[in-house]
Amino acid sequence: MAYESTNPYNGKTVKKFDELTDAQLETKIAAAAKTYETWKRTPYAERAAIVAKAAELMHAHVDKFAHLASLEMGKLINEARGEVNFSANILAYYAKNGERFLAPTKLHPTVGTAHMESSPIGVIFCVEPWNFPFYQLARVAGPHMMAGNVVMVKHAGCVPQCAMAFEQLWIDAGAPVGLYTNLLISHQQSDKVIDDTRIKGVALTGSVAAGRSIAARAGKNLKVSSMELGGSDAFIVLEDADLEKTIPWAVWGRMFNAGQTCCAAKRFIVVDEIADKFLEKFKTALSALKPGDPMDEKTTHGPLSTESALVDLLKQVDGAVAHGAKVVMGGKRIDRPGSFMQTTILADVKPDNPAFRDEFFGPVAMFFRVKDEDEAIALANDSDFGLGGSVFTKDVARGKRVASRVETGMMFINNIDWSDAELPFGGIKYSGYGRELGDMGIQEFVNKKLVRESDVPAPVV
Ligand code: NAP
């Protein structure tokens, strides 16, 4: 059964869901394509009313949505509430700004007049991960629907109830049938959806492996795509960093969402002069986290999303150790029911260790000691990924210089990667291409059309 709600806190399966038959899938694609024909001509104000209503309903039912995320993927309840509110804010942001972002822009040709128009392109197929089961959906639904596209989503197998609750949200907000469609489908059916001529764009947020497969399929069909993939962000600590402020960011950066965040701090690169102090304080702070029921507000260390995620992470840690990494703390599952991983720090991960290039999707930090700022930057850039990163220093101008030299899509000075509705989010290298959020996020799946007028005689042939 590919779609099932299993509580990772106690391993109990709550509900299972059947995948769609091919005939059911065809009915849904046909409905989406039909809705596009009217939605693309629906005025911005009417689109905005539905998207804003969905935002309002999310805000009004934060606990209902948050409970589902905690239940299905183990998110700490307060983090889940934060995610739901943020998702609603993203929808409200696009309801308010979508029309302005896509307004025609004037060009200045030497002859005549010209402008660029932004028009929708059709049905967009989005494949989304479980780690932010609502936020990831809001990031695609809000902008693309405001642009006049319609959206079909294949969510991850472990969060079907979140997926269905988000679809119901649109029905409750008054959206026409087919504007937002949740698809409980297999990977093979996903390929068929990408091949379908009624689908005009493909967006994925997920792993590099999924990116290779889905981007290739979209490419074969010459369809525009955006890829938000993994990361192994550097957390650079320079010798002049204020550790009182830096350590809480290190803990949050690695442990938020039980460490299952694409732009989490994953490689801690610390200048030698301050490295021992940093490591001691980091260990102490991580040791203070309390594993427990994610629904309990006092819990500060939740389970991983699924048992298989834990088994995979343990294998990765064992592999790193087999190739020479040293376990500074943790490294094992926590001896209790549920899919809990100890907070872990690995040191001595050398470039010939496969772990050096890996993404650890859970509470596992890699610790590196470097001579100076230049070495920190070189190490940060020695990665297949290029999503985000951060630098800690009391000298903000120095922080900005370092940020400019790190090769990623996003850099943060004295804080950690986090997104805001108005800030573009995305990476380079194996972290993918395209941007979500902000003004750029709504431009990914629109036709930028040039319209030119000039009253000149045709050249003589
Ligand atoms: P994943 O295995 O790639 O799954 C993500 C989604 O892709 C799920 O819906 C999954 O469906 C689907 N999928 C995977 N392979 C597919 C295929 N061949 N055809 C069709 N659908 C396919 O990723 P994950 O391990 O669950 O999620 C974590 C990854 O996502 C990490 O690498 C993380 O860094 C990345 N991520 C990136 C961002 C970003 O914005 N850059 C944000 C969040 C997460 P099933 O569940 O049914 O397999």
CATH topology of the largest domain: Aldehyde Dehydrogenase, Chain A, domain 1
- What small molecules accompany the polymer chains? NADP nicotinamide-adenine-dinucleotide phosphate
Oligomer: single chain
Task: State the major sheet.
Answer: 7 strands, mixed
Please tell me what the overall shape is: globular
Which residues sit in consecutive blocks of at least 5 with pLDDT less than 50? none
CATH superfamily of the largest domain: Aldehyde Dehydrogenase, Chain A, domain 1
- Averaged pLDDT: 97
3D architecture notes:
With 461 residues, the chain is α/β, with parallel strands linked by helices. The protein folds into 2 domains: 3-229 and 431-450, Aldehyde Dehydrogenase, Chain A, domain 1 (3-Layer(aba) Sandwich), CATH 3.40.605; 233-413, Aldehyde Dehydrogenase, Chain A, domain 2 (3-Layer(aba) Sandwich). Helices cover 41% and strands 20% of the residues. The protein contains 14 helices and 20 strands. It has helices at residues 22-39, 44-60, 62-73, 77-101, 135-146, 160-172, 187-195, 208-220, 243-255, 272-287, 307-322, 373-381, 396-405, 438-442; strands at 3-7, 12-17, 105-107, 113-120, 123-127, 150-154, 180-182, 199-205, 224-228, 233-237, 265-271, 326-329, 344-347, 364-370, 385-386, 389-392, 412-413, 428-429, 432-433, 446-453. The strands form 5 sheets. It has a 7-stranded mixed beta sheet, sandwiched between helices. β1 and β2 form a beta hairpin. α2 packs antiparallel against α4 and α4 packs parallel to α5 (135-146). The longest helix is centred in the N-terminal third of the chain and has 25 residues, at 77-101. It starts with a strand and ends in an 8-residue tail after the last strand. The relative contact order is 0.14. The model has no long low-confidence stretch (mean pLDDT 97). The site of NADP nicotinamide-adenine-dinucleotide phosphate has 27 residues, from α7 and α8. The site of NADP nicotinamide-adenine-dinucleotide phosphate (NAP) has 27 residues, from α7 and α8.
